[in-house]
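Here we describe the complex-level prediction in full. Unlike the single-chain runs in Section 2.1, the two entities below were treated as one system.
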Amino acid sequence: MSAAHVTEQTVKELCDIAQLAVELAKKAGAEHAEVLVRDGSELTAKVRLGEPELVQEAGSRALGLRVLRGGRRAVTYTSDLRREALEALCAETVTLAGFAEPDEYALPPDPSLLATNLPELDLYDPAVAEVDAAWALKQAIAGEAAARKHDARVTNSEGATWSRVLGATAFATSGGFVGGYRGSYASFVVEPLCDDTSDATNPKKRNGYWWTASRFLAELEAAEAIGIEAARRTLATIGSRKVETQECPIVFDPEVSRSLVGTIFSVANGSAFWRKSTYLFGKEGELIASPLVTITDDPLIPRAPGSRPFDGDGLPTRKNSVVDKGVLGPVLCDVYSARKLGRESTGSAGRGIGGNPGPTTSNLVMQAGTMKRDALLRDTGRGLYVTSLMGFGFNPVTGDFSRGAQGFWIEGGELTFPVSEITIAANFDEILKRIDAVADDLELRSSTAAPTLRVSHMTLAGTSK
Amino acid sequence: MTTTLPAALRAPFSAGGTNVIDAQLANRLLSLALDAGGDYADIYFEFRVSADYALEEEQIRTLGRGITLGLGVRVTKGDATGYAYCEDLAWDKMAHAAKTAGQIAVGGGHAPVSITPVSQIAIPSFYAVPTPSLVVPAEDKLALLRAADKAARAFDPRIVKVEASFAESIKEVLLFTSDGRMATDVQPLMRFGVRAVAEDHGKRQSGSGGGGGRYGLDYFADAARDAAAHGREAARVAIAMLDARDAPAGEMPVVLGPGDSGILLHEAVGHGLEADFNRKETSNYSGQLGKQVASPLCTVVDDGTIVGSRGAINVDDEGYAGQNNVLIENGVLVGYMHDRLSAKHYGIKPTGNGRRESFRSMPLPRMTNTSLLGGKDDPADIIKSVKRGVYAKRFSGGQVNISNGDFLFSLTESYLIEDGKLTAPLKGVNLIGNGPEVLRRVDMLGSDFELSDGIWTCGKDGQSVPVNVGTPTVRIASITVGGTQA
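The structure predicted for the assembly as a whole is:
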């Protein structure tokens, strides 16, 4: 049996440490203190060409402290949780806060708004903790072997990796909040490699991957199935080539449409709004996307990867509408950004060990359409089907969007040859408004999820005409 | 470093600390790690103190500080690695980590190797830090933020918003290996950044400036890179971009400005020359040693010994001294960047490129300061030679697919070249290409080599390490520009 289990007792211990640190901070002169404590362990087992390449196993603990003093803020962290170390940390944090200038908006949340009855979201699976390195290696070997056996053209491998994280989080504030929870997450990825000699003057290697992940062991797909799908996806890219520069319809595979949905959040959150660092500023209640677009952020879905029982300010979490039939809803806020905007938090604060809270997503999901994916492709006729994006070409202030893309050319309503080394570009405002078809293939595989969707046209930059 | 650090900044495991780790103790841990039959082990102790300061809306907003302490134990058996870490110097915790890492060798048939006694390796110093910024009072650093803010606002009334930040750290490492080496290093690092937003008639644009490296606050003594200069630079870019027009789409000549453009090199060839990818034959450059892989104009080096540069390292995280390594000489591939594992595979000496983000990760072959060396052309002539193309000046980052060599990098400041002159500024745009192909298309190389001003962080396998890049002005005959004007 693995010794990695996280118990309710661990959560309670962390809550006690968090509360102790809050007390010590108050004693050191903090007006208000917030303490986040995390205890986690990881196991990573990687196999390459049938042999173990890496087994990594470890646990770690860290404590983050934020002190507010008359609107002055300081944030510190440490991995040393002994009482005397915490006392020193508290004293130093209070001193540091003295150097900051008062910010009238940097106040703790109204205590009456703090979460009290935390929902049970079923985020921890003891079976994930039971996994040991030997079992994980066996899974990885099986998955990689399935990929290599699938087709003789799979000549090499970047490996197969089985990994899990287990953790407990506790949060306490001098406003009276204390709470904690535990979580598990397991994932498996296979990365085959094949030789592409279709261009004899410039032989290339082609890589691809496929994965499965869940908080629950039984919900992972079989290792062999992941290996076979990874091989299929990799082989399909052999012979990738550029296409001519043109305007054309672009269909986004769910693996990339979810990144578009993530990009919407990056320009539609309280922090970007009060900073006015988004082209969407001032557009709440307005049509910012096609009426086919409805997006919600729901932290309360049991067992889901992005669920959480309370937010980074200690407020209760709730389901929020982000975009409703193309209309931008009130943006997701933490307490600080909400104050800056003169409104209430949406319970969307995220917080890291060494930072201030800020708005984050939980399970950010774009609603499925009614069209079958095949029908969507047939309806498209001719265009680009995108399976992966590269690079950082997005300017949130102007909405200018230009990314490297890889995928397949659509001709006669079907995927034909593979395409790479091209970019797709348009202003993000146009991209969202030009979404003219949404498929029914939504799966909640990751905390941000979306179905296949089509943008009526974008500029594809490739070879000269 | 010449300054003696105050106790709070010294690692507890070092001489004079509260929990000294000596060679004898390290040897006991190494034997435990090798107990199950591993053929090599190392233990990496790390103590890191960091601080950060942020200004926004003309106010000092947040001060932060963090302390990390831990050790990582690595055991190898052939090409397989076992890795474990802990955050506690208590014997039972360290022993548990050593045994856990050693499990990788279970089932192997070899007798345990004998542990050789450790000896301190001699290291030079490539850090230009008479006084680490962490020992300087906070007020001095806050003054820098205010100076940058003021200078950016004074640059142009259309600057409506300024953010400035300063981050500093000292990382002390102590390494013991089962092949008898011991190394210690104290690695200072600091980074200054400014972001400005300009607004004019409803149009908004942002620009950024910044720099740093393995320096103390004396870095700012040079007026060309003092806090105000970085503030003005952020403002200049934001204002210049207000007039930006849509970028062209398609293949055309591109001229890369000196310095920051080295990021293209880092992506286009750097990663492909990290030996782990070549050992595993997953890189485009596998099996290409001795072959022409770039234009004969190109000589590419990775140099960990550039004093003060963000990527400089006295010693890598496997105990090998930082080095200047030639990767491509006149277009011919002459060497890869190695860690211990790949050097062993190729039967050569390690090149000082085995780096890790922290004690929580195993070392990998990584870049340090990667440069394309200068050529003979006058930079002005290079621009003059282009009838229609793009001049690339500032970048937000890049990415590469190691296997097929496709890379992409994102321009934040670029200009259209028309009839040999820079004309209109262009909106943010990407360049996409294939590494080996693009390096073959380098057909003019300026004499104006410049090192970037210390802002880059490289990510690989989830591990981030500080790096730097450099280039002269470079002409690439043709590359795909990802604009919207087809």
